[in-house]
Amino acid sequence: MEVVKISEKFFIQGNEACAKGALKAGCRLFAGYPITPSTEIAESLARDLPKVGGSFIQMEDEIASAGAIIGGSWGGTKSMTATSGPGFSLMQENIGYAFITETPIVLIDVQRGSPSTGQPTMAAQGDMMQARWGSHGDYEPIALSPSSVQEFFDFTIQAFNLSEKYRTPVFVMADEVIGHMREKIIIKDDIEIIPRIMPNKDESYLPFKNIENGTNPMPSFGEGFDIHVTGLTHDEKGYPDTNDPITHTKLVKRLCDKVLNNKDDICSIEAEDTEDADIVVISYGAPVRSVITAVKKAQKEGKKVGYIKINTPWPFPDKQIKKLASNAKEIIVVEMNLGQIYYEVDRIMKCQANIHLMGGIGGLLPNPDEILDKINKIGGI
Amino acid sequence: MRVEIRIGGFGGQGVIMAGIILGKAASLFDKKEAVQTQSYGPEARGGASKCEVIISDKTIDFPKVQHPDILVAMSNEALIKYIVDLKDDGTLIIDPGTTDISNVQDYINEHNITVYQSPATQTAVDDIGLKIVANIIMIGSIVKITNIISKKSAIKAIETSVPKGTEEKNIQAFEAGYNLV
Fold first, then answer.
1. What is the domain partition of chain B in residue ranges?
2. pLDDT of residue B46
3. CATH annotation of B2-180
């Protein structure tokens, strides 16, 4: 008998889709401090986590929220928090701790106008460099940016998968537009979920071993292995070893390399009509929707223009962008800030193309007609 | 064909719920694409509230409404504020109990706007006995006037969106709105 694949369909907000993605990925702890425009994620999970045996904790603040999910993860539970820029700032201390302790956690940032408390109900992408460099020291974050409600669901699952696969924090850098708008999502029944890889009961196991692929299995507290977890530079066993330059270098380089050496697996971009385009427009998150509209209009007017949609701003997909935009003479970067990912594009492409920034703040999604004007202004016949 | 709809009113009138139901009906039951967005201010009730829905046969790229084909005004403030965005030859649906069309009559004539009146609030009070179903009555009128979603899908979307136990009253409200225009 043929097995009928059942898929569920919903017409819901991006934030609700994110919560559904977390549940599907196996998240069973949410600890957070609700903040606009991310609140519906906490609301949905407060309602739904207890139904599946999970836990929801409203914490006293954001640094405690990050701390609680680190603890939850070491307790053996896939864990997540959701916030916006002001809360993301407060979490940075514990985010660094999660990187050096190699704790798989997922942090959702539904970005709003900033700096500081800024514009609670308006959209922005001002936290992209904070995701990259927000905590102190050297580390290589993974971040995904959804451009639709479906992608907010898909990328939340992907974030959990990557965090387990590479034993590292993963950010989903959404924005108010995607968080609050409603669209149809389809939940298929054959979604790949990566489980936590636990160590074998083997006496030689070291939780922070400098192995070639960089990612060690991770035990949970209470299961033996004499686990010691610290934010101090530690040896392969996890014990502090703070004065040996070699220990520190090996540890931090392994943490960076396990992401950098796997960029082909982690990085994701989508491109349309870039091969013979004179102008390539690059964007990520909600503004991609404006870019596609503008590019389609420009193509109708006979312009040789294409676009690249970055799904994973971090690690920055330099190799893929270089390849796909290799023939472009002009590159326009569209983002809802005054220039963040623009500088990454400029760094890798400035030798071969003119890089233009269309950065907008104020809270509104970029107007497709303004992007079209820019395309027309810089040529592309 | 991309149709842009804007519904404006006071917070608490259920204009956002009305937009959600239209979008849900189109995307889940009519096999079209739909996006719903809303303007979102700090006030929960009494302030201005705006809900936008785009319904299309094709993928919807830009998700915001710039120039609606259809404007539904459930408050005078919304009527005055948003009529200037309405496309020429567009459709205006108003609740005459909460708006005063004389304010914008010149604009309507100049831009060849077709006006429909659906006394949703009064019908909610007089016929259903529940002021809060004015939004559902308005959906009935919108469906009848514009045909952007099927009646069957609208009813299905209402049944799956309203609180359990209130389905019957809400369908009654929808039918009342459908028969008002």
1. 2-180
2. 67
3. 3.40.920.10
B27 lies within 8 A of chain A by CB? yes
Q: What is the interface pTM, i.e. ipTM, of the complex?
A: 0.95
Residues of chain A with Cβ-Cβ distance to B33 below 8 Å are 184
B76 touches chain A (CB under 8 A): no
Q: Which residues of A124-148 are buried (b: 16+ CB within 10 A; e: fewer)?
A: bbbbbbbbbebbeeebbbbbbbbbb
Average per-residue pLDDT for chain B = 94
Q: Does B61 touch chain A (CB under 8 A)?
A: yes
Co-location of A243 and A101 in the same domain:
yes
Predicted model pTM: 0.96
DSSP letter string, A201-242: S-TT--TT---TTS----PPTTSSTT----SS-B-TTS-B--
What three-state secondary structure class fits B70?
strand
Tell me the per-residue pLDDT of A216-256, one tens digit each, with 9 for 90 and over.
Answer: 999 999 988 888 999 999 999 999 999 999 999 999 999 99
Using alpha carbons, select from B157, B180, B181 the residue that is nearest to residue B171. Answer: B157
* Contact between B61 and A121 using a beta-carbon 8 Å cutoff: no
- Say how far apart CA A231 and CA A102 lie, in whole Å: 10
The segments of chain A whose pLDDT lies below 70 read 1-6, 380-381
Spell out which residues of chain B touch residue A296, defining contact as CB-CB under 8 Å.
Answer: 61
